């Protein structure tokens, strides 16, 4: 895949901070809100999340607390099987219990922003978090960075969210990170950077370098994957494209991709294999998520993915 040149600008980007959330604006349009001090119930595994996410044209591409899975929060990093803890929300699936409420819903707590920099090609925030069990015991220290950048891609208005997480074990034991699939439930390997789309996106279309389709993309591996859905009211289309950094452990990892039940997409590095998180050996994962107006075809999807890959490689 050819990666085109990328031009990003901060002149049309700005952000505000109200003490609980960062809100990002591009050209006068709010495009992202990052809530870093959530007020969610413990059962929903409180954690920072991005919602709403909007295209540059103003169309919203996330949903918050849908009735079927109230712990789905726009776009967020969430993991269901982290040793004995659940940092996803809701019931936990294990071989011994199936889905059961185990009183093990942990929380990711914002400690501080160590930097927010708008002097480069976008706005980049560096954050420190602590993941704690439901009883308050710290188990993981996370260093997180994300950057909002506007992409200059011909004929496709788009912006990109670059996301990096470093997870370090601060518990006394090795933490085994898995999924319901590693616990025996077929094709349920969710867990990672996860997006849930609007109700009207149900039945939308996935696209990768392997072609197009719907639920058959569940568990597939590719460097990038796009999803296109259609909005109620305006009847316009929007697309979201995930790109995985090739340096991620296990890359290319499997995608958790659903269209027919509801629209969702997420990186799933623990889909079918348990990955140990050992003291002194942190795990680092990096992604680019492109939010674009309109549908994507073979050419435009590859172009957006290439631009995002270039931005991710240039980001430091």
Model description:
The chain has one helix and 22 strands. The two termini are 22 Å apart. The strands form four sheets. It has a nine-stranded antiparallel β-sheet, covered by helices on one side. The chain has a single domain, classed as Beta-galactosidase, Chain A, domain 5 (Distorted Sandwich), CATH 2.70.98. The protein is mainly β.
Calculate the terminal CA-CA distance, rounded to whole Å. Answer: 22 Å
Radius of gyration, taken over Cα atoms and rounded to an integer in Å: 18 Å
Residue fraction in strands: 35-45%
Which series of helices and strands comes N to C? EEEEEEEEEEEEEEEEEEEEEEH
How many β-strands, per DSSP? 22
Coarse morphology: globular
Helix content class:
under 10%
CATH topology: Beta-galactosidase, Chain A, domain 5
The domain count comes to 1
- Whole-number mean pLDDT: 95
**So how many helices?**
1
Instruction: Identify the CATH class.
Output: Mainly Beta
How would the blueprint of this fold be written?
Elements: E1 13-17, E2 21-26, E3 29-35, E4 49-53, E5 75-82, E6 85-87, E7 92-94, E8 98-100, E9 107-117, E10 123-132, E11 138-151, E12 158-169, E13 175-178, E14 192-196, E15 205-208, E16 211-213, E17 224-230, E18 237-244, E19 254-258, E20 264-268, E21 275-277, E22 283-293, H1 298-314
Antiparallel strand pairs: 1-2, 2-3, 3-4, 5-6, 5-13, 5-14, 7-8, 9-10, 10-11, 11-12, 12-22, 13-21, 14-20, 15-16, 15-17, 17-18, 18-22, 19-20
């Amino acid at each position: 895949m050819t990666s085109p040149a990328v031009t990003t600008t901060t002149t049309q980007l700005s952000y505000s901070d109200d003490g609980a959330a960062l809100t990002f604006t591009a050209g006068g349009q709010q495009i992202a809100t990052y809530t870093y001090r959530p007020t969610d119930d413990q059962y929903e595994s409180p954690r920072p999340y991005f919602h709403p996410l909007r295209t540059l044209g103003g169309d919203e591409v996330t949903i918050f607390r849908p009735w079927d899975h109230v712990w789905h929060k726009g776009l967020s990093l969430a993991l269901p099987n982290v040793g004995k803890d659940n940092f996803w929300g809701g019931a936990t699936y294990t071989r011994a219990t199936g889905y059961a409420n185990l009183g093990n819903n942990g929380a990711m707590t914002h400690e501080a922003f160590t930097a927010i920099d708008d002097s480069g090609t976008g706005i980049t925030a560096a954050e420190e978090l602590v993941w704690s069990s439901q009883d308050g015991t710290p188990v993981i220290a996370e260093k997180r960075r994300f950057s909002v950048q506007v992409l200059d891609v011909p004929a496709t208005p788009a912006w990109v969210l670059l996301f990096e997480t470093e997870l370090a074990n601060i518990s006394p034991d090795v933490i085994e990170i898995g999924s319901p699939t590693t616990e025996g439930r077929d094709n349920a390997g969710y867990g990672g950077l996860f997006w849930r789309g609007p109700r009207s996106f149900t039945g939308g279309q996935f696209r990768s370098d392997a072609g197009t389709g719907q639920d058959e993309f569940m568990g597939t591996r590719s460097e990038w994957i796009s999803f296109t859905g259609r909005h109620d009211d305006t009847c316009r289309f929007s697309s979201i494209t995930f790109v995985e950094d090739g340096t991620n452990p296990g890359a290319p990892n499997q995608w958790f991709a659903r269209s027919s039940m509801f629209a969702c997409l997420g990186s799933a590095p623990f889909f079918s294999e348990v990955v140990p998180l050992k003291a002194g050996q942190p795990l680092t994962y990096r992604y680019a998520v492109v939010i674009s107006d309109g549908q994507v075809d073979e050419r435009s999807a590859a172009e957006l993915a290439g631009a995002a890959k270039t931005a991710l490689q240039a980001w430091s």
